[in-house]
Design brief:
The protein is α/β, with parallel strands linked by helices and 299 residues long. It has one domain: Rossmann fold (3-Layer(aba) Sandwich). It is built from 9 helices and 9 strands. It has helices at 29-40, 56-61, 76-90, 113-141, 162-182, 218-228, 238-250, 262-281, 283-287, and strands at 20-23, 44-49, 66-70, 95-98, 104-105, 144-149, 187-194, 206-207, 257-260. Helix 1 crosses helix 7 (238-250), helix 3 packs parallel to helix 4 (113-141) and helix 4 packs parallel to helix 5. The protein is globular. The relative contact order is 0.14.
Length: 299
């Protein structure tokens, strides 16, 4: 693919606070930390949750600036209705955060069709639908920010996580393309790639029914490691991660990608270097398939 010139001359990418946020998966962990960060800055937040009382304390403390919506992001009709109502009631949204997510652990062969569909509905289809729903209003308003909470698993892969990686890698490719499409309208997208965070991610993890053939290999080893991992693995502080994400919404030119956590940085660096080394090793092979000058051109 060839690069295209940057055509963002007419629009500023900076947003003027206070801002209006739409955050999915806000019941706990990073989502809740982002809600708190935005509220403390004086911003207004629409937060989607699965449990009606998940943000009760924050709602009581900020009744005029925190609006809670019950939403299952895998219900596309409910997503469309909720986004439409939010836009009608609030006029516009400055910052969208696609944060809702979970992982199902299991080999590709172990996953049922329903498990695979639900994982992709949560990690890929929902953020795509939500992103697309807000693009038009942001473009017409003259700008906005969309934060896609991916993972180091958006560029690094592990056994027993194929469905998770399918969602996160897909989201990252979608976001890279859309970022090019809407830059000229002042809309900026950022892919956040955290490492292990001290959240309820592990509690929400699901496990596919095991097939015996996989129990002694890489799948079984990774499944046992992941399901027993403790604080030594999930070391990143979600409040600090939220602060860094928040700061990007005030930056004139936010990064396209944001790796957060020492583990994320190290694993991403290793994966990208390995990928580049493998590509360099194929240089001559890649060039060998071109037409030669002696080949006649048909027609």
């Amino acid at each position: 693919m060839t690069s295209t010139p940057d055509a963002r001359s007419e629009h500023t990418s900076a947003l003027s606070p206070p801002l209006r946020w739409f955050i999915t998966g806000a019941s706990g962990g990073l989502g809740r930390a982002l809600v708190q960060e935005a509220l403390e800055a004086g911003d207004t937040v629409v937060a989607t949750v699965r449990r009606p009382d998940a943000l009760r304390e924050l709602t009581e403390a900020h009744p005029d600036r925190l609006h809670v919506e019950l939403l299952d992001v895998t219900d596309s009709a409910a997503v469309a209705t909720t986004v439409g109502r939010v836009l009608a009631e609030h006029g516009h949204i400055d910052v969208v955060v696609n944060n809702a997510g979970y992982t199902i652990v299991g080999a590709a062969e172990e996953l049922t069709d329903a498990e695979l569909d639900h994982q992709l509905a949560t990690l890929l289809h929902a953020p795509l639908q939500i992103t697309r729903a807000f693009l038009g209003p942001m473009r017409e308003h003259g700008g906005g920010r969309i934060i896609q909470v991916s993972s180091l698993g958006g560029q690094v892969s592990f056994p027993a996580s194929s469905a998770y990686h399918a969602g996160k890698w897909g989201l990252e490719g979608f976001t890279e393309a859309v970022a090019q499409e809407v830059a000229e309208f002042g809309v900026r997208l950022t892919i956040v790639e955290p490492g292990g965070m001290g959240t309820d991610f592990g509690v929400n993890m699901r496990t596919a029914a095991a097939i015996g053939a996989y129990e002694r290999g890489s799948v079984g080893e990774f499944r046992r490691w992941l399901t027993t991992a403790g604080s030594d693995v999930f070391r990143a502080d979600p409040a600090k991660v939220a602060r860094v994400i928040f700061d990007t919404t005030r930056a004139p030119e936010p990064p396209l990608r944001l790796a957060l956590g020492a583990d994320a940085y190290e694993m991403l660096q290793q994966a990208l270097r390995g990928r580049l080394d493998a590509l360099e090793a194929q240089r001559e092979l890649a060039q060998s398939v071109a037409f030669t000058s002696s080949v006649p051109v048909s027609g």
